[in-house]
Design goal:
The chain is α/β, with parallel strands linked by helices. It is built from nine helices and 15 strands. Strand 12 (about 230-235), helix 7 and strand 13 form a beta-alpha-beta unit. The longest helix is centred in the middle third of the chain and has 21 residues, at about 115-135. Keywords: NADP, Oxidoreductase.
């Protein structure tokens, strides 16, 4: 069968994204065919498009979507035809109308959660989950610093952290985003062009924060280290400004024995039980209202290039979805 999907034949800017007609392969054992109803847009998609995270070309794009199971291959027991499901993972090909995907990596969407909510939150929500529960397991009363606090991960992580009794200091780039971050869990706001370490010291009586969650990368890494308390944890989990340059471990010593981690989601959900447990935690806080998703932008799949331009220009906030 034929479907439409975004393909890239070379690395580059948003213009390399092309909507083309492709053939959907026959289902293999353990696979399910999913017709997408909502596709999640994530900053990591721009890394795959630009070649920062290179792979084989030509390639699809996108690692998150929700939809309906249309067919299943041999030996599939985890889902059935008609199930509403959501997934995140590789290979990148969620920017498509229909695709095949390993059934063991599909998660059924619970009642009360829409397809759009699921597609807008799974990757970003599971990122917030591992940041707060594994990279630095927060405790009530902790102070933490969160960059891009009005972004997709930021809004979810700030709400979840507040629910866990954590004081979140958010970093944003505009007053509009500051208001959004405050409304979604941030107790304090620092503007990105301010002296962030100085502001953090002032807000924490000179102590510093227990952890920094930094998705910006190159431009903020050293300043983030300066925000930490002794034995604090630097969690660098994104490269919005480019990859972090090599640094001397002595930089950690002279700031009072800091820790640095560079986590990746899929190291925390390597098995289906781990995936289901993590998704259960996410759906729980979505279901009880502790965390709400803000879908602030919707684009047609054919307008994926425009969505990428807006994302990289910091014109978006909250979560963004593509509609097939």
């Amino acid at each position: 069968m034929k479907t439409h999907a975004i393909r890239i034949n070379e690395y580059g800017g948003p213009d390399v994204l092309q909507l083309v007609e492709v053939e959907v392969p026959e289902l293999g054992p353990g696979e399910a065919r999913v017709r997408h109803t909502a596709i999640g847009l994530n900053f990591i998609d721009t890394y795959h498009r630009s070649g920062l995270y290179p792979g084989a070309l030509p390639s699809g794009l996108g690692s998150e979507a929700a939809g309906i199971v249309e067919a299943v291959g041999d030996h599939v027991t985890d889902v059935k035809v008609g199930d509403r499901v959501v997934y995140t993972g590789m290979p990148a090909d969620s920017y498509s109308e229909v695709r095949n995907f390993p059934a063991a990596r599909l998660v059924q969407i619970p009642e009360g959660v829409s397809d759009e909510q699921a597609a807008a939150t799974l990757l970003k929500g599971l990122t917030a989950w591992y940041l707060l529960h594994h990279s630095y397991p927060v405790k009530p009363g902790d102070n933490v610093l969160l960059y891009a606090a009005a972004g997709g991960v930021g809004l979810l992580a700030a709400q979840w952290a507040r629910h866990l009794g954590v004081r979140v200091i958010g970093v944003v780039s505009t007053e509009e985003k500051a208001a959004l971050a405050r409304a979604n869990g941030c107790a304090e706001i620092i503007m990105a062009n301010d002296d962030v370490p100085a502001c953090v010291r002032e807000m924490t009586a000179g102590v510093g924060v227990a952890a920094v969650y930094d998705s910006v990368g190159k431009d903020t890494f050293m300043a983030s280290l300066d925000c930490l308390r002794p034995h604090g944890v630097m969690v660098t989990f994104g490269n919005a400004s480019g990859p972090v340059a090599p640094f001397a471990p002595a930089e950690l010593a002279k700031r009072h024995s800091l820790y640095v981690t560079r986590p990746v989601l899929f190291d925390f959900v390597t098995t289906r039980p781990q995936l289901l447990e993590a998704c259960g935690k996410l759906f729980e806080v979505l279901g009880n209202g502790a965390v709400k998703v803000s879908i602030n932008q919707r684009y047609s799949l054919r307008d994926a290039a425009t969505a990428h331009r807006d994302l990289e220009a910091r014109k978006t906030s909250g979560s963004t979805i593509l509609v097939p």
